[in-house]
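Researcher: Let's do a round of design. I'm pasting the structure tokens now; please hold your answer until I've finished.
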């Protein structure tokens, strides 16, 4: 039998206190972790599904999907004592493209912003005192930019 692979990353028994909810789209995975580090979070819990935080809006997502994802988020926030959540939507998201693509890019972008807002509201209501930050992620040439959308509220 071959020896097990040993990661360079050390194991830390304590849970991270930040949860990032974003799309499974691997073109953004490393960049999201880089943003978290930039914000001072060496480690993060992650909840990744196609569509990311869009799944937390039960008014626009499929009800069963939304229910499952909402319960997963609540489980992590309570069980791991999460104090801060990052919600990230990205341009060109395949989930939104398949659901709303026929309605055009402007409609899709608007729906993503609405979903981020609804997701943030749900989480704040369910977990008073929690910090929620929203981002819109865009590829620009070879770069990935994160626009913070927090200016309008607490
Ligand atoms: Zn996506």
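Researcher: That's everything. Go ahead.
Model: Designed sequence:
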């Amino acid at each position: 039998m071959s020896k097990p692979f040993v990661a360079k990353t050390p194991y830390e028994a304590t849970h991270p206190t930040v949860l990032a909810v974003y799309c499974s789209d691997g073109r953004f995975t490393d960049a999201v972790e880089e943003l978290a580090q930039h914000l001072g979070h060496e480690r993060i819990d992650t909840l990744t599904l196609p569509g990311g935080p869009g799944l937390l809006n039960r008014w626009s997502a499929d009800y069963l999907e939304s229910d499952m994802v909402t319960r997963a988020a609540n489980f992590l926030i309570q069980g791991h004592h999460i104090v801060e959540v990052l919600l990230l939507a990205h341009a060109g998201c395949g989930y939104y493209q398949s659901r709303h693509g026929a309605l055009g890019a402007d409609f899709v972008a608007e729906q993503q912003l609405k979903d981020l807002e609804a997701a943030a509201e749900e989480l704040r209501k369910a977990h008073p005192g929690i910090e929620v930050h929203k981002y819109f992620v865009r590829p620009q040439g070879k770069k990935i930019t994160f626009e913070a959308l927090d200016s309008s509220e607490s």
